[in-house]
Design a protein that fits this description.
UDP N-Acetylglucosamine Acyltransferase, domain 1; seven-stranded mixed beta sheet; Spore Coat Polysaccharide Biosynthesis Protein SpsA, Chain A; 357 residues; 8 helices; alpha/beta; single chain; elongated; 2 domains
Length: 357
């Protein structure tokens, strides 16, 4: 049974501003790689080659440029524009021409999931339920779609962002559907949020007696919708690094699981992993602490940074405080004066910002 993939890469990313004023949220790098690439690679690993990519009018060109035609992964990509952000179910309806009568995997492009989906796809091909949903326990279910299971572990009820959650099991942004979902979606009405909710569509399958299977996440899952979530996702992804040093080390020490890409230079500095240093980056007279990603052609000069993300071409120099829990967009420049002190500084700066301390 051949499955297609559908990746959602629209949305305005308002909770990630100012980072998303100038880029699609799905292209923010996690451990040196755009978030969206992880979703593509999960689908590829599961044997899915035909993938539709839902775009928004605002960021569609950027996503197209980043992914190309998919040939670098051996994928066939079809781009589909969702004219307005009217919900996940609306995105599926917009893609119906691409999906046709094929079962498919729906994958939100701003999710980070460990363990992949290969096992889910294999089970779906064998058991052929009308839907498979992926769940994980969360502390505050009010921010998510929530599932209620019976004693046999089958889904009996779904609620979108409930004020009084009936369970702590949140829907993760990965779903497997048969083409039966299209008929349910065609009968939906907008929710109180003005969106066509995928939870209501799945609930429609349940109420019509269709089999909806639930699985819990293996490992971790992150919805990278806020800066703190991005940093935590970066931490989780870096935790799986294997040491690889291809760049140049001069009078420097690299400790633990660190990737230094070819063309990067570490000069009179200490890098303590897990950490990622992108191609062409320079770290000079500095310190890179654990859970830090430094993008391509970035510069860290006479400064200290840890638990942070520096995107491509970001430049920090002579900072008087250690930069911690920070995200600096592409081409950001932060200049300081003097030697690092014990205090820390936290910044979230959009692309091309300039700060002097």
């Amino acid at each position: 049974m051949e499955l297609k993939g559908l990746i959602l890469s629209g949305g305005k990313g308002t909770r990630l501003r100012p980072l998303t004023h100038t880029r699609a949220k799905q292209l923010i790098p996690i451990a040196g790689k755009p978030n969206l690439f992880y979703a593509l690679e999960d689908l590829l690993e599961a044997g899915i080659r035909q993938i539709g990519v839902i775009l928004s009018p605002e960021t569609g060109d950027e996503v197209r440029a980043a992914l190309g035609d998919g040939s670098r992964w051996g994928l066939q990509l079809t781009y589909i524009v969702q004219a307005a952000p009217l919900g996940i179910a609306h995105a599926v309806q917009t893609a119906q021409g691409f999906l046709g009568d094929s079962p498919f995997v729906l994958y939100l492009g701003d999710n980070l999931l460990s363990g992949g989906i290969k096992h889910l796809v294999a089970e779906y091909r064998e058991a052929r339920p009308e839907a498979t949903v992926l769940l994980t326990p969360v502390e505050d279910p009010r921010a998510f779609g929530v599932a209620v299971l019976n004693e046999a572990g089958q889904v009996v009820r779904l609620v979108e962002k409930p004020q009084d959650p009936p369970s702590n099991l949140a829907l993760v942004g990965v779903y497997l559907f048969s083409p039966a979902i299209h008929a349910v979606i065609s009968g939906l009405k907008p929710s109180r949020r003005g969106e066509y909710e995928i939870t209501e569509a799945i609930q429609g399958l349940v109420e019509s007696g269709k089999r909806v299977v639930a699985h819990q996440v293996r490992g971790y899952w992150k919805d990278t919708g806020k800066p703190d979530d991005l940093l935590d996702a970066n931490r989780l992804a870096l935790s799986g690094l294997a040491r690889r040093i291809e760049g140049e080390l001069l009078d420097s020490q690299v400790v633990g699981e660190v990737v230094v890409e070819a063309g990067a230079r570490i000069v009179r500095s200490l890098v303590r992993g897990p950490a990622y240093i992108g191609a062409g980056a320079v770290v000079e007279d500095g310190f890179i602490g654990p859970y830090t990603s430094v993008g391509r052609d970035a510069r860290v000069i006479a400064s200290e940074i840890e638990y942070s993300i520096l995107m491509d071409e970001a430049h920090i120099s002579a900072l008087p405080y250690r930069l911690d829990s920070s995200i600096l967009g592409q081409g950001v420049v932060v200049d300081g004066q003097g030697n690092p002190r014990r205090h820390t500084l936290q910044l979230v700066l959009g692309d091309r910002s300039r700060v002097r301390l």
